[in-house]
Structures are given as structure tokens and as C-alpha cells.
């Protein structure tokens, strides 16, 4: 019954009759009226009717007619879509399923099929398709789908169609309708088909995400809106795949599925993180699995998830976060590497976690595995400036600096590159004076340049590359590049500055020998076979190539490739090389030429590209060229802030590469004419270094000479010295030099106010104008020895306090400095005499040596009255010792004049009570040894630094000895480093601290065996240990042991030496070597070769009863052996306890029992093997004796706290 307010459907009357009759009416209508007009009118009428005003019973017949197969399966699209819209309209009015109870499947199949066409906006029925979508989403009658038996297929088709048709360019309202439609289905469906979950999750995969971003956004909206509904389905999805990890062996398909599901977890964490509520604990459990590939995979996945900017996983899942952090200590390096690589994004996006992560990253910089250390360094290099400044602790960065000198080349390479990149990023802030940047980054170039002290060609090439490309990038204008050079050089420490100069020196050497290489090739090509001696040519070519390649990473391979390239005869190559080395070329042209040259080499001979890329980088003047020098010269006169640094740079460059100043001589000379020019000293130094190498190119006009001479009369001492070098180097300038010398001799008196400056001038005249100096030598030498050195003034005696034993040289009084300069005059003359006539020079230098030995033996005292103050004595002793080794440097005649007794006394200077004396003497020895200018026997002197009280200096000496050991040529058969121990044993046997209990004569005839105290042996053992720590290794230890045992078949060549002390040292050394081999697990085998001990020190005992007695006697004190064994046992126990404690600590951090099996250890729980203990001699009471410093120090400084 129809209520008065009900409305009947008027369209029903037009559609009365059987379905066949209806179809006939529709057919007639379609042929007469607009397409689908009837159904369209029906749809429009339904849209205007509300649920409250409609007579539902009037819909019964029309609803059945609309679902007739002839309608829903009509071939015309319009009929189908308008029928679908009408059906949707009737469902909107009648929300129950009463109208279509038996036909719901047909209806929803129609809906699903028609909704596919909403993707085509150009369709004439697009509005109808959209209306259908809007109606279904708005009224939620789509939930009737769940009333269908086996509705899953239709639902899956609907989801699949929606995600297939959605596109970014569609209207936003359409996307909203799609989202609402699917949300209604998800919420109203009790059990979602798994295929729908698969469809949803598939949208998060990487490819789908970028192929159809609209589908990805729709999936995100659905997952967020229906998270509580979908969580269990997602959990089940992950569980089904992750459960495969329980298999004993995973197939490639299993691993592929795992990788996919982990990538899905990463994407879900970005788009719908709430779905992972139950998944994260599953991933945490994967971290504890024994399978390495799975641990690495989940470590990487969780790392990305934690790093998501909006993610709060670290705080929401604290247990998972802690378990993930522990992967940094995984027993497998691969997992540790994955953990490290995850930190870049994580630290950038989550600064609140940076401190904890930075500490973990610092730990990995000292990881036992080289690949882990390398990746840790590389990872730090990926941080931007802000991140590295605010979130990476300085201590972590300093640890990267230590890795620049890592024993493994891969680690060094990454560390050097990382620091150079970070410094380059920070330089703009450093340049403007940002204090935080200055503190955090300015030390980095020094750390990089310290790597040159490793003395490894490959590491040196890494340093060169960092210097030429990143620390000082070849870009920008000349002013900015010069300012960067000055700024960076100013921040370098002493070792860093020396390191930079070594890079420049390597560059200059490469230029020189590359020019020689090209000259040989051009000479060969320009000459006929008759003109060139093939054998001589090959000999020279081999020599040049060897020198070029000796500083390349792989000398042998590089040499073969250079020989191969020498056969190509490439004229264009020669020209390009010369252009790269042209100091007048601007930077832009040099870079262009170098690029063209490398391209040409790669095309002609690709195998040699790597070799030439290093060589061309070294020979190209990108860092220091004519443009840069002009700016440096200007800055020493104009820039007050960087004047001193610019001056030091100019001096250093002139010392290494004087030729580059050829085009700047006039500029420098003209600046010197200004009496107030602040850079005069640096400019004169530069001119002097140039004059030494190119005397004929020095400005020699009258005006220039007078300018230089004015510095001799009124300049500072250093200015006068350098000006003298320039004047004396000018060809045919003896007349002016003679005038200068004569004027100085006339005023050479003790009271002269210019005494030090005059002596400085004479010292350089002795070197650079010896013919002039010899005309006045007798007067000068007499004055220096009799009046200057042998006398003290009253003022000088009381110049310093009674307890002062040292002041810096710049603070010394004028008279003391004059005495030191007088010594230099004498030595410089002796040097020139050796160069002119070595044979006759011995007689002339003998008084000089006698004078120097007197100063050394008397601790700096030379005056009969013994009234020289302690400060001057220290300086005189240091300078005397340094002048002795200066005289013997590369001068075999003078070297032979230093007797064994003199050498022993000279060696004790390294243990002088005054630190500056010890440091200055040892530093000069290391300088000359590093340059291979000093006899190798002086290496043994450095062993006496074992008891150096200043720990920092002792470590420097130790580092030099280690470097010297590594630098020994593998092809050398001289055993120089190993024989150093024999020389050191001779020094120690005659050392004043190795206390004797009998006279030397008794030790010669061996009337009884000497006994040294435990204290003596402890003190001396430290010297031997110092040698072994620095110069022994698994390869040479057998040779060293052989040498220490061999000396028991020899005696000292000098009968006054304490030979029996040698045998004590022999047994002591053998014991310590065996002890070291046990602790380092080195194999100590019999040495098969022959060794010749230094003849000036040792002579064989021969076949005698004495030799048998010496060989059979153990000279070590039993108490000392017992105490040593006890100390070794205790040390081993402490080490073992520490290992056990560390293992227990790692296990305590483990999140599960599976971790306790050793996964957390950086190297796993390796068994500790106790070294075999030395066999005890007779049982004796063990005495614990602490190490004691040398009494040579102690007797002078009783108050030192040892």
C-alpha cells in the first residue's frame, strides 16, 4: 500500500511488458531517439528521488527488468553503463538486498566490469562511469558484495581493476571515491582474500611505486585507514615467507623472496608504518639467525627503516634497536660492513641518535678486518658538511686520520680520500673564520700528509692525488688558490708542512726525470744508428725509467710499461708533456693540456694510462706555478696576517724548486730596494737558494749588487748570510767579495757590535767564495780559536741564572751566538777543502775535529777557567755534535777520521741531561739518514733513545726506526738494519751505565766471570727491546738471532773495550728474541747464510779453549731470568683474564642465546694459545724488579719522577 507521501517511479509505466517486449521497445527507442535515452532518463529520475520519499514497491518490477541478461550483457556500452547506474540508483534508494537478492552476483559483476572504463576520460559515457563510481562509494551499497557466496573472485577483480585504472592525472575526487569504495569493502569483509593483500602490498614494490604513483598513494591511504584491519593479514604474509629461514639450506628462490619481502617492509615503513606492528619483532628475530646472508639482509633493511625521516622505530621498538646496534660486533665482517653502510642516512635524518652511532662507527675504525675499516672510513666521507660538523665527533674523525697510516693500503686510500673530501667541504667556512669549522676540520690536511712518513709508494700516490685534486683543487682564480694554499699551510703542523714539501719535492723530481726521459727519446729519434751507442742509450734509459718508477705504486710493472711506450715514438706526446711542465702556462691551459695528453695515451696504449695519470699529475704545475708565486711575493709585502706563512712557503719552494723563480727575480730584487720591505729576509732566502742552483741567472747589475751589499752592512744576521750567498755566487764577483772580506777582518774584535753578522758573512764566503776566504783564513781562524772560543767575557759568565741550562737560540746573547757562528766558519772551510782536495784536507780538518771532540767530551766547556755558563755549554755541545755529523755527511775521508772511541762518545750526546740537546742531535741524525747522506752506523745511536724521558720524542724516534726498517731495499744483501743490533751491542757494552765490576784488563783475559745486577740487566734489556720493537719482524728475526749468537764467537777489536759485556748482551738479546717470538708466534729457524760483522769493531776468537768456554757459558743472572719469567706469566694471565672478561661482556650484550655462541665478537671467540714458557735454569728465589731508567739521566736529574 502506498502512503500519501510516497512517489511512484513514472518510468516504470514506459517499461511495462515482458523482457522481450521491453527489448523491442528499447530497440525502437534506440533507432529513433538519442542512444540509451530511455535508461539515461531512468538514471536521471532515480538521482532525484530520496530514500524517504520513494515507494520501494514500485522498484520491484523495474529492478528485475534491469538485470535481465539482455540488458546487462548488451553489446552497446551505453546500455550497460546506464543499466548499471540505474541498478546502483535503486540500491541507493532501497539499501537492503531485497530487490536483487538472487542476482547480486550478476549485478556486481556488471559493476566491476563497467568500472574499468572510468580510466577513459574521452569516452562519451565517462560521466556515467564516474556517477557509478561515486554512487557505489557514497552509499556504501558495495558492502552487499559480501552477501554473495564465494564473493572473493569479484572482490579481487574489483581491487585489481581499481589499481590498474587509477592514474595520477585523474581528478582528485575520483581518487577519493576509489579510496572510499575499497575502504568500505575492507572494513565490511570479515575475511579478506589473501590475493587482495597481495594486490595492496604489490603497490609498495619499487617498480610499481614509480610506474604508477597514484596506485601507490591509494595503497598508502588504504593501509593507513584500515591498519587495524590489515595488520594480521600483513603479519601472515610476512610470516609465510620469513618462515622459510628455518630451512637448513635456502634456495635461490627463497633468498629472492626474502629480499623482496624485506624491500616491501622498507616501503611499508615509508608509506604505512602502522602495518608493521607485528612484523618488526619478526625482523628482530632474523637478526639472531645463524645464516650470514639473512643477517646481512635484515641488518640492511632495518637500517633503512630506522633512517626514514619520519620514522620513530628506534624509540617504538627499543629491543629491536638495541639488537640491531649489536650487529656492529657481528662475527662476520660482511654484516658489520652492512651495518656501517646504513649509518649515512640514519645519522643525517636522526641527529638524536648520532652520538651513539658515531661511537659505534669509531669502534669500526679499529676493526680487525681491513674491509670493515675501509668501509667505515668511506662511510664518513659520505656525510655532508653540516652532518660531519654537528653529528660526527671529532675523536671519530681523528681516528680516520690515524687510518691514513694504516698498514692496509685499502684502508689508507679510503681514509685519505675521506679527510680530503671533508676538508674541501668545510674550507669555505674555514676561510671566513668559523671557529667550529676551524676546530673540527683544519687538522685534516696534516693527518693526510703524515701518511707520507709510511714511506710506501702506493700510499704516497694517494696523498699526491688528495693534495692536487681535493686539498688544493685546480679551480678558481689565482688569488683564491693562493689564499687557500696559504690558509691551509698555516694550519699544518711541522710534520704536515714537511709532508707537503715532500709532495712538492716528489713533483720536482718527477719533472726532472721526465724531462730526461723525453730528451733521451728525442735524441734517439733525431740521430742515426751510427750516432747513438745503443748500449749506452739503453743503459741511460733504464736508469731514468728506474728512477721514475721507483716512486710509483708498482715499480716493476710501471717500468715495463714505460719501456713499451718508449718504442711508440709519439711526437705529439713529447710536446704535450713539455707544455704540462711549463711554469709559465696558466692553470687553464695546463689542465686542458693534461686532459688531452691522458686522452691520447689512453687511445694509443690503454695499459699505461694508470702509470701516466700519476706521473702527469705530479709533473703538471697545478699547485705551485708562476701565477701562485706572484701572489705569494705580494703577500709577504702586503698581507700582514699571512706574511710569515707566505715567507715560509716562498723559502720552502725555493729550496725545492728554485728554477720556478727565474721569472720573478727582477720583481724580488726591486722589492728589496725598499728599506722598509717586511719580506726582505724571505726574499733574500729565495734569491740565495736560486743562486746556489743557477748562479749565472742571478741579477748582476751594479744596482742589485749594492742593494745586496747593504744587507751585509746593516741587515740582520740571516739577511746578511743570504745576501752573501747571492753575491758570492755571481760570476766574476771576486773583487767585491774581497773588499767585503778585508773590511770584516779589519773590524774583527770581540767587542764589535756586528761580530755575529760578520762571522755569518765569513761562513758563507768560506763556502761560496773559498778562493777569497783563503786569503784571510789564517787571521780569521786565529781570531776564532784564540780570542773568541777560548775566552769568556764577564757579562757572559753571569748572563743566565745558576739553574738555567737551556734557552732557545733566538734568546741567546750575541756573544754566545758569535761563538757558535765561529764554529760554523771553521767547519764550512773544512767542507770546501774536502771538495777541492780530499787527500790533503785531512791535515787541515784534524784541528777542527780535535776542537769539536774537546767540546763534546767536556760537555761544552772549552775555556781553561771553566767559567762557561750552562746555557752556552749546552748549545756548544749540541752544535759540536751536529757539526761532526755534518762533516762526515757524504764525505768518506772525514767519516774514517771518526774513530770507534770518538763514535762511542758522540753517541752519548743522545742521552744528554738537556732535552733540547738530545732532541737536536737525534733530529739531525734522522734527517741525514732519511736522505741517505750519513753512514748507516749512526742508526745504532738512535737505539740509545730507548730510555728517553720525553715520551712524545721517544715515539718519534721509534717511528723513524720502524720506517727505516720498512724502507730497507728487499734486494739488498747488506743486512744493514740487522747489523745495527751488533753495533748497538758494542755501544751498550761500553756504555757508562753498564756497570763494570772489574777492570778492562780482567775482562780481556777472562780471569773470572763478571756479574751484572738485575737492575743493570733490566736497564739494558730495554735497549734491546726498543730495537726489536722497531726493526724486527717475522722475516728477519732469524737473522737477528743469528747475529746475536754469532758475536759470542768474536771479541772486540779494541783490547780496552769490555768484551765480556758483549757476551752478556749476546745472551740477553737471545733471550729477549726468543721471548718475542713466543709472544708473536714467530717461527725462529736456523739462518742458512753467512754474516760478516763490522771489522772495525769485532775480531774472531778462532779455535781455542776460550771460544769453547764463552760458547758454553750462560752470562745471564738466574735471579733476572726468574723475575722475567714471573713477569711474563703474570702478563699472560692478565691478558687471558682480559680476553675472558671481554667475551663475557659481549655475551652480556647479546639479545638471545644464539648470540652467545660467538656472533657478537668482532672476530668470534678464538681460542687463546699460551706461548711456551722459557725453560728455567736453576730454581732460585724470584725477585720482582721494576724497570729503571739509565743512570746517565738520573745522575743529572735526581728529582725526576720515574
Automatic annotation (TrEMBL):
<keyword id="KW-0131">Cell cycle</keyword>
<dbReference type="GO" id="GO:0007064">
    <property type="term" value="P:mitotic sister chromatid cohesion"/>
</dbReference>
<dbReference type="InterPro" id="IPR011989">
    <property type="entry name" value="ARM-like"/>
</dbReference>
<feature type="compositionally biased region" description="Basic residues">
    <location>
        <begin position="1173"/>
        <end position="1183"/>
    </location>
</feature>
<dbReference type="GO" id="GO:0051301">
    <property type="term" value="P:cell division"/>
</dbReference>
<dbReference type="GO" id="GO:0006281">
    <property type="term" value="P:DNA repair"/>
</dbReference>
<feature type="region of interest" description="Disordered">
    <location>
        <begin position="1127"/>
        <end position="1202"/>
    </location>
</feature>
<dbReference type="Pfam" id="PF20168">
    <property type="entry name" value="PDS5"/>
</dbReference>
<dbReference type="GO" id="GO:0005634">
    <property type="term" value="C:nucleus"/>
</dbReference>
<keyword id="KW-0498">Mitosis</keyword>
<dbReference type="InterPro" id="IPR039776">
    <property type="entry name" value="Pds5"/>
</dbReference>
<dbReference type="InterPro" id="IPR016024">
    <property type="entry name" value="ARM-type_fold"/>
</dbReference>
<protein>
    <recommendedName>
        <fullName>Sister chromatid cohesion protein</fullName>
    </recommendedName>
</protein>
<keyword id="KW-0539">Nucleus</keyword>
<feature type="compositionally biased region" description="Basic and acidic residues">
    <location>
        <begin position="1184"/>
        <end position="1202"/>
    </location>
</feature>
<dbReference type="GO" id="GO:0000785">
    <property type="term" value="C:chromatin"/>
</dbReference>
<keyword id="KW-0132">Cell division</keyword>
